[in-house]
Every structure is written in structure tokens, then in C-alpha cells.
Amino acid sequence: MKKQILVGLCLLAAQLTFAQESITLFNGKNLDGWVNHGEEKWFVEDGELICESGPKGEYGYLSTDKFYKDFELTLEFKQEADGNSGVFIRSTFEGTKVTGWQVEVAPPGKDTGGIYESYGRGWLIKPDPEKDKALKMGEWNTMKIRVEGPKVTSWLNGVEMVHLEDEKIGEGEGAIALQIHDGGGIRVKWRNIELIPLD
């Protein structure tokens, strides 16, 4: 009996270890594993993923070629110029029309860490304005996003920005994507994009 319990515990431990294995989404060399939507510029330089506005200054997205449902995503971003961007979860695309939810990345005072539903209900939740001081404009920032069923939580540099439970998000399926906002003049750098599956 003790042996069976021990074997069971070992199997459980192995499953938990496997479930917590980190996946590197950006290899620091090229855009393998990603899909470009639109005409904005996405390229790799000095081990960093860079997005810049193209000549038309329209919306652009770079999405994973795989879908991810429940996960914890950690990444770093550095806003240069305008810096208006975002991280999409459980999202699908038709050209540059996106169906999904964005965790905002924006200049100071523009609700970084909040959750916005594109082509839908708009803002679902914004952080308390006081939390905006967690953002370091022009420096590297660490964002963490945890998505599990209908629950989404975002952190910026260790500060919890928002927590939301939403049935529609819970039903969503799709890719993770980085956004470049329209308007032109935007440049954002990304690095260390790591995902831990939770399912």
C-alpha cells in the first residue's frame, strides 16, 4: 500500500513539474513561431523584438502561431517614442481586425495593465490611477499576466494592476499577440517572453 502511495505521489509530482515547464515564445534571434498581421514593422535587433510604426501608421499585430488557453505569461517591454501598445490574450485575427482581449501597454496616464476588449465592450477594467507610478517610461518594465478560465490578473513591475473575472473571456480561445497602435511614431522593444501553461 505504501509503495502504491509513493508511486502515486511521484506521478503527481511529475505531472506538476511538467505543467509548470516554461516555454520561451521569443528566441531572441528571429520571428519563428510568430505571425505578422498588418504592415507595421516587427524585427529582431540585438536579441530584442522591436515594433515600429510603418509608413501608414496603422494597427499592427504579431501573434503566436499557436493558441494558448490557461497560462502565466511574463515579458519585458521598453517604450520608446509614443509607446502605445498592448498584449492580447485568447485572440484571433482577420487581417488587422482582432477578436480578443488586450492588457494595455501605454504611456503614463493611459491605463497600462488594464483590460480592453477590441471590437466589443471596450474597457472592462482600468487600474487605479495611483498604480500608474509602477510604470517606468523609457526603461525596461516587467509585465506578468495570469489567465485561468474566466480570471485574468495583470502585474507591472511586481504591482498587481487589475484582477477580472469575466465569463466571455473564459469562453475565449486564441493566440497571444503583441500590438502596435495606430497613429504612427510608435516604437516598443520586447524581450524575455516566457509562458508557463496552467492546463
TrEMBL record:
Give the 3-keto-alpha-glucoside-1,2-lyase/3-keto-2-hydroxy-glucal hydratase domain ranges. Answer: 22-195
Signal sequence, start to end = 1-19
Q: Look up keyword Signal and say if it applies.
A: yes
Instruction: Alphabetically list the UniProt keywords.
Output: Signal
Say yes or no: keyword DNA damage present: no
Recorded GO molecular functions are: hydrolase activity
Q: Which InterPro entries match?
A: AL/BT2_dom
One Pfam family it belongs to:
3keto-disac_hyd
What is this protein called in UniProt?
Answer: DUF1080 domain-containing protein
